[in-house]
Structure formats: structure tokens, C-alpha cells
């Protein structure tokens, strides 16, 4: 079985609190986009999990989230003597705030469900024990994600206009736990009080297909912290804006940046310009 594993971007990301166990509570509108990894999956009767990839920089053992996803699936389903051979063709940049690893893990779980039909409605709940972004990657589309990312409310989005973006990365990856820890150490103010109001405005703008209004509501509470560690993030934002983006923002904990453009041609022009400057850049659109 071959599955696409799409990247996600955060149109908003607010931190609303911290649980007693240290996990951060969020309010985030997440959007899947047409930048994909590909996951190939085959069951085996040896009870082993084997991973290979087109790139050398990802682990192919128990550290890989696809391994964890397969192992957790088999445990939850009570399947013994069954394993999986998994091939990951990476396109999405790693450690970039685009949920590339989580999307790969979600694809594995979705594929195993299609092959075995063992978990049914339990799949989404089980996926959250593998990683906080997996429930969204399982659900897909556009969602308001709350709690630790496990409380999902689908958001209707007008399909009258295809929303084109450029996604780029111009520096090495960042550790998500480290960025959240820095956020905690530097935060002096309580959570932004208009989080709900801003999120509601964004959701209504998506429903109308109003790209300008969507861009006006974009906000990422982690951007300032990540940019202090990687000043290249703000440089990339400025470059995207100068190349025609309506607005640009860091996704997740960074360091990738996405810009929303008025049309396909302008997004592709930005991608070509960024690539000519030695950056990793892709054209994509909202799914």
C-alpha cells in the first residue's frame, strides 16, 4: 500500500496553559497542505518492523515515529505474529514545524487500519498516544486543535478559491520541546486574552474564503522565541513579504516559514527566487 503523508501548517498557534504533567495546552487552527511524503507499507508474517528511506538522516529503528506508530497499532489491535515493512520517501523538511514525522506515522496507522480493519473508531484515540500531532494528521483537512492537540473541531473552508502558499526553510531544525521550554522561561504575561476572538475571526474568514482576512488573523505565540534562537526566521519572513506574500509566518515551533499568496503564479515566483538564493522552498496549496 502506498499513502501520501501531507505536511501541516499552523494558521494560528496560541498557548493557553500547561497541564500538571508539563504538556502545553494549545489553541491552533491547523491546515494540511499539498506537500507530501510518501509511505509504502507491506504486512509481513515475521512479526518484525523494518523501516527504510530515501534519506540517511532519519533513524530507521525504534526512534522513528513510524516504528512507534506500527508497534502501537499492533499492540492496541492485539495482533501478534504480524509485522510491517515501511519505506518512507521524505520530501517534507524534518524538525521544521510541518509535522512531517507525525504525518508519516499517521499514514502508517491509516494504512494498517485499511489492511487489517482492527481498530475502527478507536484509531484516532490510539494515535494520540504516539504523538500530539497524530490525531490531526489522521483527521486531516482544516481543524481547530485544542487540549494538547487531541481535541479536534473540523473547520469548514470555502473551496471557491484555491489558497496557494510557499513553504521554505533557511536554517537548521529546532527542537520542539526545547522551544516550549524557552517559551515557559521567557513568558511574563498571561495567555493572550483575545485568543478565542481571533480564532473565531480566522474560522469565519476560512468559511468565507476571504484570504486577506485569514492573513490578518495569523498568529504564532512561539515565533518570537524561535526567532531569538534562529534570526534567519525573521529574515525569511521579510523575504517572502518582499516577494509578494500577503502575509508570512513561522509554522509550529519552526524554523520553517510559509507565505500565503494571491495566486499560484506569485507563489511559484517566490519559490523560484528563494531557491536561487540557496534555500529549501516548495509551492503548495491548502487541501
Polypeptide structure, described:
α1 packs parallel to α2. Helices cover 37% and strands 28% of the residues. The chain has 287 residues and is α+β, with helices and mostly antiparallel strands. It contains ten helices and twelve strands. It has helices spanning 65-77, 100-116, 122-127, 134-139, 176-186, 195-208, 211-217, 223-229, 232-242, 264-276, and strands spanning 2-10, 12-18, 24-44, 49-53, 83-89, 142-146, 151-154, 164-169, 219-220, 247-250, 257-261, 280-285. α1 links the parallel β4 and β5.
Q: Please count the helical segments.
A: 10
Shape: globular
Name the structural class. alpha+beta
User: What average pLDDT do the residues reach?
Assistant: 95
Over all CA atoms, what is the radius of gyration? 19 Å
Helix content: 25-40%
Low-confidence stretches: none
Instruction: Give the biggest beta sheet.
Output: 8 strands, mixed
Record field, number of beta strands:
12
C-alpha end-to-end distance: 22 Å
Give the SSE string.
Answer: EEEEHEHHHEEEHHHEHHEEHE
Beta content:
25-35%
Give a short overview.
By secondary structure, the chain is an alpha+beta fold. The chain contains 10 helices and 12 strands. The two termini are 22 Å apart.
Annotation keywords:
single chain, 287 residues, alpha+beta, eight-stranded mixed beta sheet, 28% strand
Q: What is the element layout, followed by pairings?
A:
Elements lengths: L1 E9 L1 E7 L5 E21 L4 E5 L11 H13 L5 E7 L10 H17 L5 H6 L6 H6 L2 E5 L4 E4 L9 E6 L6 H11 L8 H14 L2 H7 L1 E2 L2 H7 L2 H11 L4 E4 L6 E5 L2 H13 L3 E6 L2
Parallel strand pairs: 2-9, 4-5
Antiparallel strand pairs: 1-3, 2-3, 3-5, 3-6, 6-7, 8-11, 8-12, 10-11
